[in-house]
Specification:
Elements: H1 3-23, H2 53-64, H3 86-98, H4 109-125, E1 133-137, H5 140-155, H6 159-163, E2 170-175, H7 180-188, E3 196-199, H8 209-221, E4 225-232, H9 244-254, E5 257-261, E6 286-289, H10 291-294, E7 302-306, H11 309-316, H12 347-382, E8 386-388, E9 396-401, H13 409-425, E10 432-436, E11 439-445, H14 453-472
Parallel strand pairs: 2-3, 2-4, 4-5, 5-6
Antiparallel strand pairs: 1-7, 6-7, 8-9, 9-11, 10-11
Helix pairs in contact: 3-12, 4-12, 5-7, 5-11, 8-9, 13-14
Bound molecules: pyridoxal-5'-phosphate.
Pyridoxal-5'-phosphate binds near residues 234, 236, 261 and 263.
Length: about 475
Amino acid sequence: MKNKEFRHYAHLMVDWMADYFEQIEDYPVKAQVQPREIYNQLPAQAPIEGEAMSAIFKDFQDIILPGITHWQHPNFFAYFPANTSFPSILGEMLTATLGAQCMIWDTSPAAAELEERVMNWLRDLMGIPDNFEGVIQDTASTATLTAILSAREKATNFDSNQNGITANNLRVYCSTETHSSIEKAVKIAGLGKKNLVKIPVDDQLLMRGDALEQAIQEDINNGLHPTCIVAAIGTTGTTAIDPLQEIAAISQKYAIWLHVDAAYAGSALILPEFQWMIQGIEQVDSFVFNPHKWLLTNFDCSVYFIKDQECLLRTFEILPEYLKTTNRGIVNDYRDWGVPLGRRFRALKLWFVLRSYGVKGLQKQLRTHIDLAQELTSWIQTSTDFEILAPTSLNLVCFRYHPTPINDAATLNNINETILQHLNKTGLLYLTHTKIKGQYAIRLVIGQTFVKAHHIKHAWQQIQEIARKTITA
Ligand code: PLP
């Protein structure tokens, strides 16, 4: 492809992109295809001769698009959102064009210095103390792995890096509600799943501080080594917010690394009224949140803040001859701040978002989502046949259909599972579920960039209609 043709198709595709956002509500939110439907339409062998972009783009529209779930559809209420926004997309376009691999300062000084500046902006905005340093990772899973590896090294005085993990007693604590990425990180870090201790939660689904301390005490009495606590600020199931101050005091008392997984809810820290969520942050060692979830920035963009930068560098530093530079020690070489060597220029899209919306614009967007969630919660609370199953702490509403005559737990679970399937089959909206104390709960997250009040009103109408039809069918 020559530059002239590139320009032609780039213009055409930008027009397609703008049309896509104008027409996005015409698509089913959740892809309505069957397994293998897309695969079977694709040729068994790669093309020997190059093909025309017109043919490739046509197949994108005819074959690929029907198999896409439209995460940017305003009726996407599933999981947590993976937001984008126009400024973010523009940033991504430039990142793709530059194609810079930003592993060290020398390989693109602007990328390293913009990342440092934007991390400091975010840190200050979110009320994270200024003795923390930030770095962009691909995902929260990677950031949590980074934290657990650092905690492991600190606990073993950097011996595990040198000699392998000889200790079989490094314990990690998180609540029963925390994300599966904690368990994955514990396994990858070589600590062993058996050393992950799941602490019970209270009736609000928050980690119980007394149970945490008891588990730590028991472990110490048994000769085990408490190594890391992971507190959740916004669990995946219900956005429960663990009592950080209480947990932080325990981590201090026993000198245990404290990592905070705020993958989703962390964005809300740009709102002064949610600063209470991180009371105790001074005692925290590391903290992750994903602008790629709720801060209008394209996946992937996960922000990791760490207090002991030296510990991070000692955990990850490598220095082969080909990576030696003259600026070492004066600049940030982010390849030493996490697992991968190669790094995309992710700070650019975040910078575009922060500048284009401004703090006020982002705050307004998040507050709108939170207000809409409160409104939906009040509608559910006043309805006669639906009920709220967990507190709506931010913008995730957990509820179920519960008509008065039905009280059998298994029947209620089956009914709600069927309702969810029927709702998603309509293609009009997309929701997912969780289990809360054994009860099947429908989750509705109001965090999509383009969601407005009328989408929530329609969603609520659809939910009631389909639920009542399901029960009479
Ligand atoms: N932590 C929490 C609380 C999450 O909800 C999620 C994903 O939804 C993750 C971690 C993992 O995020 P990522 O996909 O960035 O690894």
